[in-house]
Amino acid sequence: MLVALFCILVLGSANASAGRTFVNRLDKLIGKELATSAAKTEAKAAVGEMRESIQEYDAKLKQAAQDIAKLNEDYAVSASEFENTVRELDGARANAFGHLVSARAKLRAAIPAEQWGGIVGAAARAK
């Protein structure tokens, strides 16, 4: 799961919809499969954090693409100005990845080990 989300962050916006799809399936399975309301609440909060991280990064990626295009319109833009935009995006990616790792840890705490594959694994395998 974490590898798939990492790939989404690294590969960019075109695959952010795959991340949203995964998180939506995960949210539905949590609602159906977890027995206790406390576990559901904790797991859904973790999924919400994942969803938010993906959405924030996707927005920053789209903005960076616009910013880079605008910078490229001007021949006189320095390499450092261009690099700063790319570095800001890299920082946003690293931040989003850190949030996903944190949310996954919360998800692991909420979902019993014996149910992990049936919930998270099923969400990852669904087409």
What do you see in this structure?
The chain is elongated, with a radius of gyration of 17 Å. The chain has one domain (17-125). It has 127 residues and is mainly alpha-helical. The protein has five helices and no strands.
State the order of secondary-structure elements, H for helix, E for strand: HHHHH
Total of helices: 5
Percent of residues in helices comes to over 70%
Mean pLDDT rating: 85
Q: What's the shape?
A: elongated
What's the gyration radius in Å? Answer: 17 Å
Distance between the termini: 14 Å
Please describe the biggest sheet, giving its number of strands, its sense, and whether it closes into a barrel. none
Strand segment count? 0
Strand content: under 5%
Structural class: mainly alpha
What keywords describe this structure?
disordered N terminus; 0% strand; 87% helix; mainly alpha; single chain; 127 residues; 5 helices
